[in-house]
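Fold this complex.
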Amino acid sequence: MAFFGLLGGEAAASDAAIEAAALRSDRFRQEREGDWKRLEAIVTRMEAGRWRRLSDADVLALPVLYRTVASSLSVARETSLDAATLAYLEALVQRAWFLVYGPRTTLAGWLARFLGGEWSRAVRAIWPELLVAFTVMAVGTLVGWLLVSSDADWYYALVPGQFQDARVPGATREVLRDTLFGSAQDDGLSMFAAYLFSHNAGVAIMCFALGFAFGVPPLLLLVQNTATLGAMVWLYHDKGLATEFIGWLSIHGTTELLAILLAGAAGLHVGRSMAFPGTRGVMQAVAEAGQRAAVVMAGVVLMLVMAGMLEGFGRQLVDDTTGRYIIGYSMLAIWLAYFFAFRRTPSGSEAA
Amino acid sequence: MSAARAMPTAKNDRRRVMITPEGIALPIVVGSRGSRFGALLLDLLFIVVLMISTTLLLAYLGSGVGDLRSEALAKGDKAIARASEFLVVLWIAVMFLFRHAYFLFFELGPRGATPGKRLTGLRIAARDGGRLTTEMVLARNLLRDIELFLPIAMIVTNSGADNMGAAGLAATVWFLVFGLFPFFNRDRLRAGDLVAGTWVVEAPRRKLEAVLSTTRTAASGHSAATGVHYRFGEAELAIYGEFELQTLERVLREDQPEALVAVHTAICRKIGWEPGAGDERAFLEAYYTQLRARLESGMRLGQRKADKHG
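Structure:
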């Protein structure tokens, strides 16, 4: 066996490559692996969420090192056959890429951008759906009213059981009046508000998410919910309490119904982009619409928090109709002004 | 690239190429349905554990407050009543957050993955290769509600009654439609991924392996054990290509004695040498380095040899 090594010694080409301590591609690696290791250390620390322990120099170095290592990868692919090193570089570049091009803003930064224009812009961008949703809600209310006024039995079909305590056709004016006023005992209000929020947010999220099925389910949900509303308005109107009932509803309802309208419109927007993607691919159209709708939805959840608080505290504490109208419609005016009059384009927008 | 060939074929249909803004093609592996399901189960487990432990903690606090409350009510003191009410509000808020904010919170972090995904080696990414935005994460998690929580809640409430009627059936069908969604597209997207423009990919993590050509044997072909200088001629190196080189690299890195012997024997037979014994590693290191030097210098001249047939 000792002889075999001597047999093939004459190739001059291999001599040149062997004379140094390493292959040329390995020397390339040895010269650069300091940078690679530094990037890996920074990336590992950032992934673990330890931003604070990174020095300013490291944070500044991240994009530079990312490009350095990315170019190392390009070169290595053309010159090196070391599979382990190539795999390492590919993984490292990918990890760094996620950080360099990841969601870079903090939650507070995102919230500032969101409230400072992104939300109202998203709402304005889905205006055709807003109109459709509004029409559907108006028609739903009307249908509920007409159905019940033609035959009071419809009331039981339209209004869910939980509202049918005292509020049924044939109840006296006094009983109905009591459901609107005088419940100013403040026990359990915050509990009630929290429950309402949690429940309504669930409905709104469903309204949005169902838009996935070509936008039909949100329409049905809107019709169903507003038909309930129409039926109840009829019930109170029948006993001459329409103004009081609308006041009772408006204090939180302007915010809540607007939120549900937005949620339904957001769902419709996704459904519409799926049915009519236009010149873009369906996948791309749906993704764009989905992201826009998600912004609207984040706002809807916020509005529902406010509606829950208005409903839980405001309605029970403000016990006269005028006060309720004032609060309800100034909220509506504020929302509309915010969405449609507030047109500042945010600086430093992340969305490209 | 050449690395793709070395991967087992079962993995090939999950490989994608993503182009970074710098124009570098990065290989990406879409997460398998199995590991995604595992990640989901883990996350649900974590959420349930969190929910139960918070509930128990609040109930414990509440029972303390409750005792005080009954005394306080007798005396007409409202502060204590408020305290127990506050606990209920806190409970509702916390349950809402666990259900809706758990996924959001973790997926917006630098790892882009919930604890369950992290444990199964997954993360989320933007499908178009661009930036992963907050909106995308929001959208994909809002959809999770109708895909998962809603039908499960419907099934649970309906299964309690004896008549698992139409509603229960509808919920089950609904659940299956969304549950099986990833089986009907190439990229294993669930409905939320589709609407958000995201996908779930494997999160790579690799150590930098040692340089193979720095040992004395590799550099000079000189074996310390036997004192032999291994030099291979052009004809002996020309028979193998990149695929065989990378197989050899793997064998050297794994360093299993049986594999070393087997590969040593195979190479010796192929190049017409008499296989000896006892010095396999030195032989293979020398052969690897010289083969790689030959192939890489060919590469620089634009001549590549994929494998022994090429």
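Chain B has 13 helices and four strands.
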